């Protein structure tokens, strides 16, 4: 795999990124370290985590994923210099009072969160520091509409950029990014950065997969014109696009207890558990099989080959899953298959937006 430059930063990453949100919950530390070893062995140079991980979130596991990564770095002294490490500062509290008091996200909050992440990760610098979700009210995590009446923003984007800028100036962060962001947000962060000599966002990490392609509805043009890179998360639609829930009943309360769709109740209710999302996934999975591919191969190849995507974030719970996802690299989708995919989308649009 060749590396890709992220935005206008000096970061160059592989087009596949290892996501780690299950480390500390679904994945124990020993397995997490084995996955990290294998990922590095296979040439992936990009890791993504967040202060709020592991997921599903709870006070007892807040910061667990970063801690597991920090212990791995301590055990593998040469690994850190080979990797681009990304983490995220949580936005205003979404029912997680343990993240920070007051529930907001001031400039001081951003700096304090970064300092805590550096300690847990046992590193001196975070290569890509991202805002996990906007401080202002936006439709995200399954919400469809913007509602001005719910706006409670207390910290300006300018203040957020100044805090991030101070971290870059101090050498604690190399580049900055956003996540779960809108076209307006990307434009405003770039505009203010250029107007005030502050760090320019390099990336936006948003959901992007066959059943959730909203990034192609204006966000892709925004990012292309502004020189910001898309990091695609949930390329397998929370497991729906692997085909493992194609048998009726496997997606409901009787699903295997360790399956994400059974374990992650809050996330399931947000978008992935919608009946329309499952029906759409089954259509795409059947299409993959008709063209001689596994559902996983087609779903990942869709992200791996889209011009909009700089790097695709894969989340796994075993070394075997990691190998399967990496082996999908190089899979091509014929023009006929891509046309069939678009025909399905025209009919059902984005049920897991």
Automatic annotation (TrEMBL):
One of its GO terms (molecular function) is oxidoreductase activity. Keywords: Oxidoreductase. Pfam families: Aldo_ket_red (PF00248). Residues 15-344 form the NADP-dependent oxidoreductase domain. This is Aldo/keto reductase. It comes from Variovorax terrae.
């Amino acid at each position: 795999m060749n590396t890709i430059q992220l935005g206008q930063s000096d970061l160059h990453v592989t087009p596949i990124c290892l996501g780690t949100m299950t480390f500390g919950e679904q994945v124990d530390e020993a397995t997490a370290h084995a996955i990290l070893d294998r990922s590095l062995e296979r040439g992936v140079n990009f890791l993504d985590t967040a202060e709020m991980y592991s997921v599903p979130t709870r006070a007892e596991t807040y910061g667990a994923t970063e801690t597991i990564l920090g212990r791995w770095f301590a055990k593998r002294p040469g690994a850190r210099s080979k990797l681009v490490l990304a983490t995220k500062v949580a936005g205003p509290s979404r029912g997680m009072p343990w993240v920070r008091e007051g529930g907001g996200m001031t400039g001081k909050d951003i700096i304090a969160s970064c300092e805590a992440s550096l300690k847990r990760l046992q590193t001196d610098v975070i290569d890509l520091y991202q805002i996990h979700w906007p401080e202002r009210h936006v439709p995200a995590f399954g919400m469809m509409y913007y509602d001005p009446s719910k706006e409670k923003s207390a910290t300006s984007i300018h203040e957020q950029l100044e805090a991030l800028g101070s971290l870059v100036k101090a050498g604690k962060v190399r580049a900055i990014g956003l996540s779960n962001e809108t076209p307006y947000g990307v434009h405003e962060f770039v505009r203010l950065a250029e107007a005030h000599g502050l760090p320019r966002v390099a990336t936006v990490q948003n959901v992007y997969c066959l059943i959730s392609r909203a990034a192609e509805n204006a966000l892709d043009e925004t990012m292309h014109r502004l020189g910001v890179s898309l990091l695609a998360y949930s390329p397998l639609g929370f497991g729906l696009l692997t085909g493992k829930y194609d048998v009726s009943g496997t997606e409901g309360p009787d699903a295997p207890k360790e399956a994400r769709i059974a374990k992650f109740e809050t996330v399931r209710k947000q978008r992935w558990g919608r009946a329309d999302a499952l029906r759409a996934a089954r259509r795409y999975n059947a299409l993959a099989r008709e063209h001689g591919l596994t559902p996983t191969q087609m779903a990942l190849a869709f992200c791996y080959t889209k011009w909009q995507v700089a790097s695709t974030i894969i989340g796994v719970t075993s070394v075997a899953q990691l190998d399967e996802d990496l082996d999908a690299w190089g899979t091509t989708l014929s023009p006929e298959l891509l046309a069939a995919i678009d025909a399905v989308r025209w009919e059902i649009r984005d049920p897991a937006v």
